[in-house]
Amino acid sequence: MPRTLLAVCLLLFAFVSAAHAEDPSERSAKRHYDRGQKLYNLQKFEQALEQYQKAFDAQPLPGFLFNIAQCQRNLGDYDAAIFSFKRYLKLDPETEKREQVEELIEELEAKKAEGDTERLGLGRRQRDREREKEAEEDKTPREVEGGAPVYKKWWFWTGVAVVGAAGGIGIYYATKSSGGAPGTDLGNIDYPK
Questions:
Q1: For the domain that residue 38 is a member of, what is the CATH number?
Q2: Sign of the dihedral through C-alpha 68, 73, 78, 83
Q3: Could you write out the DSSP letters of every residue in 75-135?
Q4: Structural domain span for residue 54
Q5: Is the pTM for the entire model greater than 0.70?
Q6: Rounded Cα gap, residues 40 and 128, in angstroms
Q7: Is residue 85 part of a domain?
Q8: Residue 82 included in any domain
Q9: What's the rounded Cα separation, in Å, for the pair 117 and 111?
């Protein structure tokens, strides 16, 4: 009887252990998710994004897409964040975060439009400035600089002399020994040889 009871207990334990054993992809996803969370909390969004993407690759859960989108949003990659948020809503249409995600998508689309407008405006302004500059350069006569090479100019050798003198003075003071007793009453420490 005790042997039968022991055998049943061992068999039951084996079945319970097998039922609770995690799938390798689940363990991998959890490991990458935990790393991503730590990195996200440290505001290391690029590394966190990599970890969340690896977690999603190991186990494609919609929640990972939300985290991926948050990293992309914090990195300023609005197109990718919008895509990831929309994909999240598509994979988990009954999510409790639906309202929050839709607000984030609207906010990101507004920022994206604002950035596009600003870029177009800057592009035009920059092009106008370049045209004005070219027109001004055409008006001013150009002077051809000629003469002796740089190493034959007086100011070149004056600069070399100043730098050499400063280097010599610096070396002198750096190697100068004070040669006196220590400045405190504590004395010196001699280490045995």
A1: 1.25.40.10
A2: positive
A3: TT-HHHHHHHHHHHHHH-TT-TTHHHHHHHHHHHHHHHHHHHHHHHHHHHHHHHHHHHHHH
A4: 20-115
A5: no
A6: 42
A7: yes
A8: yes
A9: 10
Number of domains in the chain: 1
Token pair 């035009």 in the structure block, residue:
124
Q: What is the pLDDT along the chain (193 residues), one digit of tens a residue?
A: 556 544 444 444 455 444 445 578 899 989 999 999 999 999 999 999 999 999 999 998 989 899 999 999 999 999 999 999 999 999 999 989 999 999 999 999 988 888 776 666 665 666 677 777 776 766 655 554 567 787 788 888 899 999 999 998 988 888 876 655 555 565 656 666 6
Question: Which residue in this structure is represented by tokens 């929050």?
Answer: 100
Q: Which region, left, alpha or beta, applies to residue 20 given φ > 0 means left and ψ of -120 to 50 means alpha?
A: alpha
Contact (Cβ atoms closer than 8 angstroms) between residue 66 and residue 33: no
Determine, yes or no, domain membership for 189.
Answer: no
